[in-house]
Amino acid sequence: MAILACGHCGHLCEILKKEYIGKKVKCPSCQQVILVHDTVDLVTELLQETFRLNEELIKLRQRNPPTSDKQTQQQKGYAFANLSSSPLLENFQEVVQWFKAKQIEAKPDERAMDISGFFDEIAVQLGDNWAILGEICHKI
Q: What is the pLDDT of residue 92?
């Protein structure tokens, strides 16, 4: 059996006649000239390339091991967890100046920028544990 796999447009189809193997034909989708492959030979080449890439991935992971559980736990939640406000929300003067240039008076409410509290902490916990709690949330 023969296979036509176009590297230009991604078109893939089987060709029932073996006499096309090794011949160049136009892709039915994009009209680029491509080579018709023997199915078993192409699958063998693809598997060899997959195994080679997998070995390379293993070597790269050995050079750069994944982060430890302790590092992973520190990355969960917000970077400003347990703070009363986000450092990102403290510099609002540029926004006030932009509104002022448009002749709009803006008065930031600093109480609205308070990120501490029950709902914020619950939201972080839900996000960090979504794989476990997501189904429950959908049911609620």
A: 74
* Domain segments of the chain as ranges: 2-63, 69-139
Query: Distance between CA atoms of 25 and 75, rounded to whole angstroms?
Result: 53
Strand partners, 62: none
* C-alpha–C-alpha distance, residues 20 and 37, integer Å: 8
- Tell me the per-residue pLDDT of 71-123, one tens digit each, with 9 for 90 and over: 554 555 554 555 555 555 566 778 888 889 999 888 877 777 666 666 777 78
Rounded to whole angstroms, how far apart are CA atoms 97 and 119? 31
Angle between helices 118-128 and 130-139 (to 10 degrees): 110
| Tokens representing residue 114 in the block | 């308070």
pLDDT of residue 87: 55
3-state secondary structure of 12: strand
With a CB cutoff of 8 Å and minimum separation 6, the contacts of 23 are: 35, 36
Nearest-CA neighbor of 36 among 70, 9, 61, 13?
A: 13
Contacts of 28 (CB under 8 A, 6+ apart): 4, 11, 13
